[in-house]
Specification:
The structure is a homodimer of 226-residue chains. With 226 residues, the first copy, chain A, is α+β, with helices and mostly antiparallel strands. Helices cover 44% and strands 24% of the residues of chain A. Chain A folds into 2 domains: 3-143, Jelly Rolls; 155-225, Winged helix-like DNA-binding domain superfamily/Winged helix DNA-binding domain (Arc Repressor Mutant, subunit A, Orthogonal Bundle). The model of chain A has no long low-confidence stretch (mean pLDDT 93). Chain A binds a DNA duplex (30 and 30 nucleotides) through helix 9.
Chain lengths: 226, 226
DNA sequence: GTGGTGAGTTGACCTTGGTCAAAAGCTCAT
DNA sequence: ATGAGCTTTTGACCAAGGTCAACTCACCAC
Protein backbone atom coordinates (compact mmCIF):
# COMPACT_ATOMS: atom_id res chain seq x y z
CA UNK A 1 0.00 0.00 0.00
CA UNK A 2 1.37 3.36 -0.99
CA UNK A 3 0.02 6.78 -0.22
CA UNK A 4 -0.18 9.79 -2.50
CA UNK A 5 -2.16 12.93 -3.22
CA UNK A 6 -5.43 13.08 -5.12
CA UNK A 7 -5.38 13.06 -8.89
CA UNK A 8 -7.94 15.15 -10.69
CA UNK A 9 -9.83 11.99 -11.51
CA UNK A 10 -10.00 11.05 -7.86
CA UNK A 11 -11.35 14.51 -7.09
CA UNK A 12 -14.00 14.13 -9.75
CA UNK A 13 -15.21 10.81 -8.33
CA UNK A 14 -15.34 12.25 -4.84
CA UNK A 15 -17.16 15.41 -5.83
CA UNK A 16 -19.63 13.40 -7.88
CA UNK A 17 -20.60 11.13 -4.99
CA UNK A 18 -23.72 11.40 -2.93
CA UNK A 19 -22.00 13.05 0.01
CA UNK A 20 -20.86 16.01 -2.05
CA UNK A 21 -23.94 16.26 -4.22
CA UNK A 22 -25.58 19.05 -2.24
CA UNK A 23 -22.44 20.53 -0.80
CA UNK A 24 -21.38 24.00 -2.00
CA UNK A 25 -18.00 23.93 -3.71
CA UNK A 26 -16.02 25.70 -0.99
CA UNK A 27 -17.28 23.31 1.68
CA UNK A 28 -16.48 20.35 -0.55
CA UNK A 29 -12.99 21.66 -1.13
CA UNK A 30 -12.52 22.09 2.60
CA UNK A 31 -13.48 18.46 3.20
CA UNK A 32 -11.01 17.25 0.59
CA UNK A 33 -8.18 19.38 1.92
CA UNK A 34 -5.43 17.13 3.14
CA UNK A 35 -7.00 13.96 1.78
CA UNK A 36 -4.67 11.22 0.62
CA UNK A 37 -5.04 8.27 -1.70
CA UNK A 38 -3.98 4.70 -1.23
CA UNK A 39 -4.10 1.71 -3.56
CA UNK A 40 -4.88 -1.77 -2.37
CA UNK A 41 -4.74 -5.21 -3.92
CA UNK A 42 -7.69 -7.56 -3.70
CA UNK A 43 -7.73 -9.23 -0.26
CA UNK A 44 -5.75 -6.42 1.36
CA UNK A 45 -7.01 -5.63 4.82
CA UNK A 46 -7.53 -1.90 5.29
CA UNK A 47 -7.98 -2.12 9.02
CA UNK A 48 -8.81 -4.62 11.69
CA UNK A 49 -11.37 -4.54 14.43
CA UNK A 50 -9.81 -2.66 17.32
CA UNK A 51 -7.47 -0.56 15.17
CA UNK A 52 -7.38 3.15 15.87
CA UNK A 53 -9.00 4.95 12.96
CA UNK A 54 -7.88 8.43 12.10
CA UNK A 55 -9.42 8.69 8.66
CA UNK A 56 -12.76 8.45 7.05
CA UNK A 57 -12.49 6.13 4.06
CA UNK A 58 -13.95 6.69 0.64
CA UNK A 59 -14.04 4.14 -2.18
CA UNK A 60 -12.80 5.91 -5.30
CA UNK A 61 -12.82 2.64 -7.20
CA UNK A 62 -12.95 -1.03 -6.40
CA UNK A 63 -14.96 -2.72 -3.67
CA UNK A 64 -14.54 -3.01 0.08
CA UNK A 65 -16.29 -5.26 2.54
CA UNK A 66 -16.75 -4.62 6.24
CA UNK A 67 -17.02 -7.75 8.32
CA UNK A 68 -17.01 -9.07 11.85
CA UNK A 69 -15.50 -12.31 13.10
CA UNK A 70 -16.76 -14.99 15.44
CA UNK A 71 -15.25 -18.09 16.94
CA UNK A 72 -13.20 -20.32 14.71
CA UNK A 73 -12.46 -17.48 12.32
CA UNK A 74 -15.99 -17.40 10.93
CA UNK A 75 -16.68 -14.14 9.15
CA UNK A 76 -19.92 -12.24 8.56
CA UNK A 77 -20.25 -9.27 6.26
CA UNK A 78 -21.74 -6.16 7.77
CA UNK A 79 -21.66 -4.10 4.60
CA UNK A 80 -20.18 -4.06 1.12
CA UNK A 81 -19.09 -0.68 -0.20
CA UNK A 82 -18.98 0.03 -3.94
CA UNK A 83 -17.40 3.02 -5.61
CA UNK A 84 -18.61 6.24 -4.07
CA UNK A 85 -19.31 4.87 -0.60
CA UNK A 86 -17.94 6.25 2.62
CA UNK A 87 -17.05 4.20 5.67
CA UNK A 88 -15.25 4.42 8.99
CA UNK A 89 -17.14 7.60 9.81
CA UNK A 90 -18.83 6.18 12.89
CA UNK A 91 -15.58 5.25 14.58
CA UNK A 92 -14.10 8.64 13.73
CA UNK A 93 -17.01 10.70 15.01
CA UNK A 94 -17.32 8.70 18.21
CA UNK A 95 -13.56 8.70 18.62
CA UNK A 96 -13.59 4.94 18.98
CA UNK A 97 -11.56 2.11 17.58
CA UNK A 98 -12.81 0.16 14.58
CA UNK A 99 -15.68 -2.14 15.45
CA UNK A 100 -15.09 -4.39 12.45
CA UNK A 101 -12.55 -5.40 9.83
CA UNK A 102 -12.37 -3.87 6.37
CA UNK A 103 -10.94 -5.67 3.37
CA UNK A 104 -10.57 -4.80 -0.29
CA UNK A 105 -12.52 -7.29 -2.37
CA UNK A 106 -11.25 -5.96 -5.67
CA UNK A 107 -8.13 -3.94 -6.38
CA UNK A 108 -9.21 -0.63 -4.94
CA UNK A 109 -8.34 3.03 -4.77
CA UNK A 110 -9.25 4.49 -1.43
CA UNK A 111 -9.31 8.15 -0.45
CA UNK A 112 -8.66 8.91 3.19
CA UNK A 113 -10.15 12.05 4.60
CA UNK A 114 -8.53 13.48 7.67
CA UNK A 115 -10.73 12.53 10.64
CA UNK A 116 -10.08 15.34 13.13
CA UNK A 117 -10.33 17.87 10.34
CA UNK A 118 -13.69 16.49 9.31
CA UNK A 119 -14.94 16.61 12.89
CA UNK A 120 -13.94 20.25 13.02
CA UNK A 121 -15.68 20.98 9.74
CA UNK A 122 -18.88 19.39 11.00
CA UNK A 123 -18.93 21.89 13.82
CA UNK A 124 -18.04 24.83 11.64
CA UNK A 125 -19.90 24.19 8.41
CA UNK A 126 -23.61 23.52 8.73
CA UNK A 127 -23.68 22.14 5.17
CA UNK A 128 -21.09 19.53 5.96
CA UNK A 129 -22.91 18.55 9.12
CA UNK A 130 -26.14 18.17 7.23
CA UNK A 131 -24.59 16.14 4.45
CA UNK A 132 -23.08 13.75 6.94
CA UNK A 133 -26.29 13.53 8.89
CA UNK A 134 -28.11 12.47 5.76
CA UNK A 135 -25.39 9.99 4.93
CA UNK A 136 -25.59 8.44 8.37
CA UNK A 137 -29.35 8.22 8.12
CA UNK A 138 -29.10 6.37 4.83
CA UNK A 139 -26.49 4.00 6.22
CA UNK A 140 -28.62 3.38 9.25
CA UNK A 141 -31.66 2.61 7.17
CA UNK A 142 -29.76 0.22 4.95
CA UNK A 143 -28.46 -1.65 7.94
CA UNK A 144 -31.86 -1.80 9.59
CA UNK A 145 -33.37 -3.04 6.37
CA UNK A 146 -30.80 -5.77 6.13
CA UNK A 147 -31.39 -6.79 9.72
CA UNK A 148 -35.12 -7.09 9.09
CA UNK A 149 -34.50 -9.00 5.85
CA UNK A 150 -32.21 -11.46 7.57
CA UNK A 151 -34.86 -12.19 10.13
CA UNK A 152 -37.86 -12.30 7.83
CA UNK A 153 -36.78 -13.73 4.51
CA UNK A 154 -35.51 -17.08 3.31
CA UNK A 155 -32.48 -17.36 1.09
CA UNK A 156 -34.37 -17.30 -2.24
CA UNK A 157 -36.44 -14.35 -1.04
CA UNK A 158 -33.33 -12.39 -0.12
CA UNK A 159 -31.85 -13.10 -3.50
CA UNK A 160 -35.08 -12.13 -5.27
CA UNK A 161 -35.03 -8.93 -3.27
CA UNK A 162 -31.49 -8.16 -4.27
CA UNK A 163 -32.26 -8.75 -7.92
CA UNK A 164 -35.30 -6.50 -7.78
CA UNK A 165 -33.17 -3.85 -6.11
CA UNK A 166 -30.84 -3.90 -9.12
CA UNK A 167 -33.68 -3.55 -11.56
CA UNK A 168 -34.45 -0.17 -13.06
CA UNK A 169 -37.88 1.46 -13.01
CA UNK A 170 -40.65 -0.90 -13.85
CA UNK A 171 -39.73 -2.97 -16.86
CA UNK A 172 -41.29 -6.43 -16.57
CA UNK A 173 -38.15 -8.13 -17.91
CA UNK A 174 -34.51 -7.14 -17.85
CA UNK A 175 -30.91 -8.29 -17.65
CA UNK A 176 -27.97 -7.14 -15.60
CA UNK A 177 -24.45 -8.09 -14.66
CA UNK A 178 -23.42 -8.83 -11.10
CA UNK A 179 -20.85 -6.23 -10.07
CA UNK A 180 -18.84 -8.88 -8.19
CA UNK A 181 -18.36 -12.61 -7.74
CA UNK A 182 -21.21 -14.71 -6.40
CA UNK A 183 -18.94 -15.33 -3.52
CA UNK A 184 -19.25 -11.73 -2.47
CA UNK A 185 -22.97 -11.55 -3.09
CA UNK A 186 -23.41 -14.56 -0.83
CA UNK A 187 -21.52 -12.80 1.95
CA UNK A 188 -23.49 -9.61 1.48
CA UNK A 189 -26.75 -11.52 1.79
CA UNK A 190 -25.54 -13.48 4.80
CA UNK A 191 -25.47 -16.80 2.97
CA UNK A 192 -22.93 -19.51 2.32
CA UNK A 193 -21.95 -19.60 -1.38
CA UNK A 194 -23.67 -22.98 -1.72
CA UNK A 195 -26.90 -21.54 -0.37
CA UNK A 196 -26.75 -18.71 -2.89
CA UNK A 197 -26.27 -21.19 -5.68
CA UNK A 198 -29.26 -23.19 -4.53
CA UNK A 199 -31.33 -20.06 -4.17
CA UNK A 200 -30.60 -19.18 -7.78
CA UNK A 201 -31.66 -22.58 -8.94
CA UNK A 202 -34.87 -22.29 -6.91
CA UNK A 203 -35.55 -18.97 -8.62
CA UNK A 204 -35.16 -20.54 -12.04
CA UNK A 205 -38.76 -21.64 -11.77
CA UNK A 206 -39.71 -17.98 -11.38
CA UNK A 207 -38.00 -16.96 -14.58
CA UNK A 208 -34.52 -16.06 -13.36
CA UNK A 209 -31.80 -17.22 -15.68
CA UNK A 210 -28.21 -17.08 -14.49
CA UNK A 211 -25.26 -17.43 -16.82
CA UNK A 212 -22.04 -16.64 -15.07
CA UNK A 213 -22.41 -13.12 -13.80
CA UNK A 214 -25.27 -12.37 -16.15
CA UNK A 215 -28.72 -12.39 -14.58
CA UNK A 216 -31.79 -12.40 -16.76
CA UNK A 217 -35.26 -11.78 -15.36
CA UNK A 218 -38.16 -12.86 -17.51
CA UNK A 219 -41.03 -12.27 -15.14
CA UNK A 220 -40.73 -9.53 -12.60
CA UNK A 221 -44.14 -10.30 -11.15
CA UNK A 222 -43.19 -13.84 -10.27
CA UNK A 223 -40.08 -12.59 -8.53
CA UNK A 224 -42.03 -10.12 -6.44
CA UNK A 225 -44.49 -12.79 -5.45
CA UNK A 226 -41.75 -15.04 -4.18
CA UNK B 1 -53.77 8.57 22.81
CA UNK B 2 -53.99 12.14 24.02
CA UNK B 3 -51.55 14.92 23.47
CA UNK B 4 -50.40 17.53 25.95
CA UNK B 5 -47.49 19.77 26.87
CA UNK B 6 -44.38 18.69 28.73
CA UNK B 7 -44.49 18.44 32.50
CA UNK B 8 -41.38 19.42 34.41
CA UNK B 9 -40.68 15.76 35.00
CA UNK B 10 -40.79 15.06 31.27
CA UNK B 11 -38.34 17.91 30.73
CA UNK B 12 -36.02 16.47 33.33
CA UNK B 13 -35.98 13.06 31.67
CA UNK B 14 -35.31 14.59 28.29
CA UNK B 15 -32.56 16.88 29.47
CA UNK B 16 -30.94 14.04 31.37
CA UNK B 17 -30.76 11.76 28.31
CA UNK B 18 -27.72 11.10 26.23
CA UNK B 19 -28.74 13.42 23.41
CA UNK B 20 -28.82 16.44 25.68
CA UNK B 21 -25.88 15.48 27.86
CA UNK B 22 -23.38 17.69 26.05
CA UNK B 23 -25.82 20.24 24.75
CA UNK B 24 -25.66 23.76 26.18
CA UNK B 25 -28.88 24.74 27.92
CA UNK B 26 -30.13 27.25 25.33
CA UNK B 27 -29.70 24.75 22.50
CA UNK B 28 -31.48 22.10 24.54
CA UNK B 29 -34.34 24.47 25.23
CA UNK B 30 -34.59 25.27 21.56
CA UNK B 31 -34.89 21.59 20.70
CA UNK B 32 -37.66 21.12 23.26
CA UNK B 33 -39.59 24.15 22.11
CA UNK B 34 -42.92 23.04 20.77
CA UNK B 35 -42.53 19.45 21.88
CA UNK B 36 -45.66 17.59 22.89
CA UNK B 37 -46.32 14.54 25.00
CA UNK B 38 -48.52 11.58 24.31
CA UNK B 39 -49.42 8.58 26.42
CA UNK B 40 -49.87 5.12 25.00
CA UNK B 41 -51.15 1.84 26.32
CA UNK B 42 -49.19 -1.34 25.92
CA UNK B 43 -49.68 -2.71 22.36
CA UNK B 44 -50.58 0.71 20.95
CA UNK B 45 -49.08 1.25 17.54
CA UNK B 46 -47.32 4.62 17.32
CA UNK B 47 -46.94 4.51 13.59
CA UNK B 48 -46.96 2.06 10.74
CA UNK B 49 -44.50 1.46 7.97
CA UNK B 50 -45.31 3.93 5.24
CA UNK B 51 -46.82 6.56 7.54
CA UNK B 52 -45.65 10.12 7.10
CA UNK B 53 -43.55 11.05 10.10
CA UNK B 54 -43.45 14.64 11.20
CA UNK B 55 -41.95 14.16 14.63
CA UNK B 56 -38.89 12.69 16.20
CA UNK B 57 -39.96 10.41 19.03
CA UNK B 58 -38.44 10.22 22.46
CA UNK B 59 -39.24 7.60 25.10
CA UNK B 60 -39.86 9.48 28.34
CA UNK B 61 -40.94 6.29 30.03
CA UNK B 62 -42.04 2.85 28.96
CA UNK B 63 -40.71 0.76 26.11
CA UNK B 64 -41.16 0.87 22.36
CA UNK B 65 -40.24 -1.67 19.74
CA UNK B 66 -39.54 -0.98 16.09
CA UNK B 67 -40.33 -3.87 13.79
CA UNK B 68 -40.74 -4.88 10.19
CA UNK B 69 -43.23 -7.32 8.75
CA UNK B 70 -42.94 -10.09 6.20
CA UNK B 71 -45.38 -12.40 4.52
CA UNK B 72 -48.09 -13.92 6.60
CA UNK B 73 -47.85 -11.20 9.22
CA UNK B 74 -44.50 -12.40 10.54
CA UNK B 75 -42.77 -9.69 12.54
CA UNK B 76 -39.10 -9.05 13.22
CA UNK B 77 -37.82 -6.53 15.72
CA UNK B 78 -35.36 -4.02 14.41
CA UNK B 79 -34.76 -2.25 17.69
CA UNK B 80 -36.19 -1.95 21.19
CA UNK B 81 -36.07 1.50 22.74
CA UNK B 82 -35.99 1.93 26.50
CA UNK B 83 -36.50 5.18 28.41
CA UNK B 84 -34.24 7.90 27.08
CA UNK B 85 -34.02 6.61 23.52
CA UNK B 86 -34.81 8.57 20.40
CA UNK B 87 -36.30 7.16 17.24
CA UNK B 88 -37.88 8.20 13.98
CA UNK B 89 -35.02 10.60 13.35
CA UNK B 90 -33.87 8.91 10.14
CA UNK B 91 -37.22 9.24 8.43
CA UNK B 92 -37.49 12.87 9.52
CA UNK B 93 -34.04 13.90 8.34
CA UNK B 94 -34.39 12.14 5.03
CA UNK B 95 -37.93 13.43 4.66
CA UNK B 96 -39.18 9.91 4.04
CA UNK B 97 -42.05 7.84 5.28
CA UNK B 98 -41.56 5.40 8.13
CA UNK B 99 -39.60 2.33 7.08
CA UNK B 100 -40.97 0.22 9.92
CA UNK B 101 -43.73 -0.05 12.50
CA UNK B 102 -43.43 1.21 16.07
CA UNK B 103 -45.41 -0.20 18.94
CA UNK B 104 -45.49 0.50 22.66
CA UNK B 105 -44.52 -2.63 24.54
CA UNK B 106 -45.30 -1.16 27.95
CA UNK B 107 -47.57 1.73 28.81
CA UNK B 108 -45.40 4.58 27.59
CA UNK B 109 -45.01 8.31 27.68
CA UNK B 110 -43.62 9.61 24.43
CA UNK B 111 -42.32 13.07 23.70
CA UNK B 112 -42.65 14.24 20.12
CA UNK B 113 -40.18 16.80 18.90
CA UNK B 114 -41.18 18.89 15.97
CA UNK B 115 -39.40 17.47 12.91
CA UNK B 116 -39.04 20.47 10.62
CA UNK B 117 -37.97 22.59 13.57
CA UNK B 118 -35.28 20.06 14.46
CA UNK B 119 -34.03 20.02 10.87
CA UNK B 120 -33.74 23.77 11.02
CA UNK B 121 -31.89 23.64 14.30
CA UNK B 122 -29.40 21.15 12.93
CA UNK B 123 -28.47 23.67 10.27
CA UNK B 124 -28.34 26.59 12.68
CA UNK B 125 -26.85 25.14 15.82
CA UNK B 126 -23.60 23.27 15.43
CA UNK B 127 -24.03 21.72 18.88
CA UNK B 128 -27.34 20.21 17.93
CA UNK B 129 -25.92 18.87 14.70
CA UNK B 130 -23.02 17.30 16.51
CA UNK B 131 -25.21 15.74 19.18
CA UNK B 132 -27.41 14.15 16.54
CA UNK B 133 -24.42 13.01 14.55
CA UNK B 134 -23.12 11.18 17.58
CA UNK B 135 -26.51 9.72 18.27
CA UNK B 136 -26.82 8.43 14.73
CA UNK B 137 -23.36 6.92 14.91
CA UNK B 138 -24.24 5.06 18.08
CA UNK B 139 -27.49 3.81 16.58
CA UNK B 140 -25.65 2.70 13.48
CA UNK B 141 -23.06 0.82 15.46
CA UNK B 142 -25.69 -0.93 17.54
CA UNK B 143 -27.50 -2.05 14.44
CA UNK B 144 -24.33 -3.24 12.75
CA UNK B 145 -23.37 -5.12 15.88
CA UNK B 146 -26.73 -6.83 15.95
CA UNK B 147 -26.47 -7.75 12.29
CA UNK B 148 -23.07 -9.34 12.87
CA UNK B 149 -24.33 -11.13 15.96
CA UNK B 150 -27.30 -12.55 14.11
CA UNK B 151 -25.03 -13.96 11.48
CA UNK B 152 -22.26 -15.23 13.72
CA UNK B 153 -23.77 -16.42 16.96
CA UNK B 154 -26.10 -19.24 17.94
CA UNK B 155 -29.09 -18.62 20.17
CA UNK B 156 -27.34 -19.44 23.45
CA UNK B 157 -24.38 -17.29 22.43
CA UNK B 158 -26.63 -14.33 21.71
CA UNK B 159 -28.32 -14.74 25.05
CA UNK B 160 -24.97 -15.05 26.83
CA UNK B 161 -23.90 -11.88 25.08
CA UNK B 162 -26.98 -10.04 26.17
CA UNK B 163 -26.51 -11.11 29.76
CA UNK B 164 -22.88 -10.00 29.75
CA UNK B 165 -23.97 -6.68 28.30
CA UNK B 166 -26.20 -6.14 31.32
CA UNK B 167 -23.48 -6.97 33.75
CA UNK B 168 -21.63 -4.18 35.47
CA UNK B 169 -17.84 -3.79 35.49
CA UNK B 170 -16.02 -7.00 36.16
CA UNK B 171 -17.64 -8.83 39.03
CA UNK B 172 -17.35 -12.58 38.44
CA UNK B 173 -20.89 -13.19 39.71
CA UNK B 174 -24.00 -11.02 39.75
CA UNK B 175 -27.74 -10.87 39.52
CA UNK B 176 -30.09 -8.65 37.56
CA UNK B 177 -33.71 -8.29 36.60
CA UNK B 178 -34.89 -8.36 33.02
CA UNK B 179 -36.41 -4.98 32.21
CA UNK B 180 -39.16 -6.65 30.16
CA UNK B 181 -40.88 -9.95 29.46
CA UNK B 182 -38.89 -12.80 27.95
CA UNK B 183 -41.21 -12.42 25.04
CA UNK B 184 -39.68 -9.08 24.26
CA UNK B 185 -36.14 -10.22 24.84
CA UNK B 186 -36.71 -13.04 22.38
CA UNK B 187 -37.86 -10.56 19.76
CA UNK B 188 -34.93 -8.27 20.41
CA UNK B 189 -32.51 -11.16 19.93
CA UNK B 190 -34.27 -12.38 16.83
CA UNK B 191 -35.48 -15.61 18.41
CA UNK B 192 -38.79 -17.34 18.89
CA UNK B 193 -39.78 -17.35 22.58
CA UNK B 194 -39.31 -21.12 22.66
CA UNK B 195 -35.77 -20.75 21.38
CA UNK B 196 -34.98 -18.23 24.10
CA UNK B 197 -36.32 -20.60 26.69
CA UNK B 198 -34.14 -23.40 25.38
CA UNK B 199 -31.14 -21.13 25.22
CA UNK B 200 -31.60 -20.31 28.90
CA UNK B 201 -31.76 -23.94 29.80
CA UNK B 202 -28.61 -24.61 27.77
CA UNK B 203 -26.88 -21.83 29.69
CA UNK B 204 -27.83 -23.40 33.00
CA UNK B 205 -24.81 -25.65 32.65
CA UNK B 206 -22.67 -22.50 32.49
CA UNK B 207 -23.96 -21.19 35.78
CA UNK B 208 -26.92 -19.10 34.66
CA UNK B 209 -29.92 -19.42 36.94
CA UNK B 210 -33.21 -17.98 35.78
CA UNK B 211 -36.15 -17.45 38.12
CA UNK B 212 -38.90 -15.51 36.45
CA UNK B 213 -37.31 -12.24 35.41
CA UNK B 214 -34.41 -12.67 37.79
CA UNK B 215 -31.16 -13.77 36.18
CA UNK B 216 -28.30 -14.97 38.32
CA UNK B 217 -24.81 -15.47 36.93
CA UNK B 218 -22.47 -17.61 38.99
CA UNK B 219 -19.54 -17.87 36.62
CA UNK B 220 -18.87 -15.02 34.28
CA UNK B 221 -15.89 -16.81 32.75
CA UNK B 222 -18.00 -19.74 31.65
CA UNK B 223 -20.46 -17.39 30.00
CA UNK B 224 -17.75 -15.59 28.08
CA UNK B 225 -16.34 -18.86 26.88
CA UNK B 226 -19.68 -19.93 25.48
C1' DG C 1 -60.51 -22.92 47.67
C1' DT C 2 -61.75 -22.77 42.17
C1' DG C 3 -61.40 -21.40 37.81
C1' DG C 4 -59.38 -18.38 34.41
C1' DT C 5 -55.83 -16.08 32.02
C1' DG C 6 -51.44 -15.31 30.21
C1' DA C 7 -46.42 -16.24 30.49
C1' DG C 8 -43.11 -19.63 30.03
C1' DT C 9 -41.46 -24.32 29.25
C1' DT C 10 -41.05 -28.76 27.10
C1' DG C 11 -41.55 -32.19 23.47
C1' DA C 12 -42.07 -33.73 18.70
C1' DC C 13 -41.49 -32.62 14.28
C1' DC C 14 -39.86 -30.31 10.17
C1' DT C 15 -37.70 -26.71 7.36
C1' DT C 16 -33.78 -23.98 6.45
C1' DG C 17 -29.45 -23.48 5.58
C1' DG C 18 -24.48 -24.68 7.02
C1' DT C 19 -20.69 -28.01 6.06
C1' DC C 20 -17.91 -31.17 3.63
C1' DA C 21 -16.63 -33.49 -0.47
C1' DA C 22 -16.69 -34.20 -5.18
C1' DA C 23 -17.67 -32.82 -9.78
C1' DA C 24 -18.13 -29.36 -13.32
C1' DG C 25 -17.01 -25.01 -15.56
C1' DC C 26 -13.93 -20.93 -16.40
C1' DT C 27 -9.73 -18.30 -17.19
C1' DC C 28 -5.36 -17.85 -18.14
C1' DA C 29 -0.46 -18.77 -19.06
C1' DT C 30 2.22 -21.73 -21.37
C1' DA D 1 -4.98 -27.35 -26.97
C1' DT D 2 -3.31 -28.43 -22.12
C1' DG D 3 -3.19 -28.21 -17.55
C1' DA D 4 -3.31 -25.34 -13.15
C1' DG D 5 -5.99 -22.95 -10.20
C1' DC D 6 -9.97 -20.74 -9.39
C1' DT D 7 -15.18 -20.26 -8.81
C1' DT D 8 -19.51 -22.40 -8.90
C1' DT D 9 -22.60 -26.20 -8.67
C1' DT D 10 -24.44 -30.45 -6.90
C1' DG D 11 -25.18 -34.07 -3.56
C1' DA D 12 -25.39 -36.01 1.06
C1' DC D 13 -25.58 -35.07 5.60
C1' DC D 14 -26.31 -32.53 9.89
C1' DA D 15 -27.44 -29.00 13.31
C1' DA D 16 -29.95 -24.93 14.59
C1' DG D 17 -33.94 -23.12 15.27
C1' DG D 18 -39.02 -22.33 13.79
C1' DT D 19 -43.69 -24.21 14.60
C1' DC D 20 -47.43 -26.39 16.84
C1' DA D 21 -49.40 -28.47 20.72
C1' DA D 22 -49.58 -29.81 25.35
C1' DC D 23 -48.45 -28.80 29.88
C1' DT D 24 -46.88 -26.12 34.02
C1' DC D 25 -46.88 -22.22 36.79
C1' DA D 26 -47.94 -17.86 38.79
C1' DC D 27 -51.22 -14.58 39.61
C1' DC D 28 -55.79 -12.79 40.18
C1' DA D 29 -60.81 -12.55 40.71
C1' DC D 30 -64.51 -14.54 42.56
Amino acid sequence: MKTSRLTSNDRAVLLGSRLFANLPAPAAEAVLEGATISRHEAQDVLFHQGDAIEHVFFVVSGLVRLYGTGKGGREADIAVFPRGALFGEKAVFLDQRATAHAQAVHPSIIAKLDGPRLCRLVREEADVAWALLELLCRHGQMTEKRLAEDRLLTAPQRVANYILGQCPGDSPAFTFRLPFQKNVLAGKLGLAPEALSRAFSTLRQSGVIVKGRLIEIRDREALERF
